[in-house]
Amino acid sequence: MKSMVPLGLIVATFALTSSRCFDSAKVFRVKPQNEKQVNFLKYLASIKQLDFWHPDSAPHIVTQMQVDFHVSAHQSRSVQTLMEQNEIQYEILLHNLQEEIEKQFDGKRNFTGRHSYTKYNDWDKIAAWTARIAKIYPKLVSRIQIGNTFEKRPMYLLKVGKESGRKKAIFMDCGIHAREWISPAFCQWFVKQAARTYGKDRIMTHLLDSLNFYVLPVFNVDGYVWSWTQDRMWRKNRSKNSSTNCIGTDLNRNFAAAWGTTGFISDDPCDETYYGPAPESEDETKAVATFIRNHLSSIKAYLTIHAYSQMLLFPYGYTFHKAPNHNELAEVAKAAVEALSSLYGTKYEYGASATLIYPTSGSSVDWAYDEGIKYSFVFELRDKGRYGFLLPESKIKSTCKETMLAVKSIANYILNYAS
Ligand SMILES: [Zn+2]
């Protein structure tokens, strides 16, 4: 066993040194006070390489919006100077991104290197776990492969629920955006907690007896692998684009929901929010959309888990018009965020996404809704920007526990009221 320790450390060190380095890279926060400042930030984004953390891209910026972006070490001095010259007030959220990347692995040391629910697990560990959990709970969990990614990795879906006749179902995916690591951590937590508390927790037992959950722990597997091995800040998938070296499509702009029409989506493959050459052009989008279409008669709710900003959003994103059951969605969301905050007091905002954040098209939640899934929600998990995408492992457990309450609240509603 002793030799396992240094080996694990060597592997970890190698993984970090072989990848893109973020030494002295910074994350800035700005709240533009007027149109002039908004325009200045958009201009800054056009002349400097700004990696937007919130909102997703520069065109979304409006006055009084909290804008977080990451700048490389060699550009951060000049970005700072330009902001000062233009009297833009800023805060530096992270002074050295590389240090924060390393600090996120602050979970309890685990010398075996095994899968852990309170640590971030790489894809190999998650893939092995999907097989293992189905083996441990054969009466509750089964594994289905719904397709392959662009790089031919299997897309595993876990079906969680007591085997019985026709049941309503809830589809939940995690990790559509590669760098949002807390999201796959939640899907793993959910499956474990559901299986372990069946027969003990009254509500969960009832839910699993009467509903099936389809859980996709990692939607964007190739991107997730890339975020572990090469670039911690990677967001898109890893498909090749013709006529450019820029890689990847934003899978959450690639669905056939007003695809490519509204909300500052991008037709430039070099952008982080590139919507792809056609709706469902990406293998990953196609696999998920096909599975959902084939199960539309049973799927009553669609949940998609992102980070960060502590919000619970629902359709629409592509229009400011209210969804037909807007008031009901708001009620369900309100109950869910109240359940969530009952544990540690974590505050969530909720609302229709175009109104609460900004318009976007081609998102999975709008697509699911337009396919007839009337209870479709987006979770933006912790935090509100202190760590952003680099939420430390020590916060996985509390984040998952509180989110579990919100998901149970929605599931309970589906069980009792969705037809
Ligand atoms: Zn996301």
Automatic annotation (TrEMBL):
A Gene Ontology cellular-component term: extracellular space
Q: SUPFAM superfamilies from the xrefs? A: Protease propeptides/inhibitors, Zn-dependent exopeptidases
Tell me the keywords, alphabetical order.
Carboxypeptidase, Disulfide bond, Hydrolase, Metal-binding, Metalloprotease, Protease, Signal, Zinc
Q: Name one GO biological process term.
A: angiotensin maturation
Report any Pfam family annotated for this entry. Propep_M14
Location of the active site: E380
Cofactors named for this entry:
Zn(2+)
Q: Identify the domain of life.
A: Eukaryota
| InterPro entries registered for this protein in UniProt | CARBOXYPEPT_ZN_1, CARBOXYPEPT_ZN_2, M14A-like_propep, M14A_act_pep, Peptidase_M14
Give the family per the record.
Belongs to the peptidase M14 family.
Q: What is this protein called?
A: Carboxypeptidase A3
Origin organism is Chrysemys picta bellii
Q: Which gene encodes it?
A: CPA3
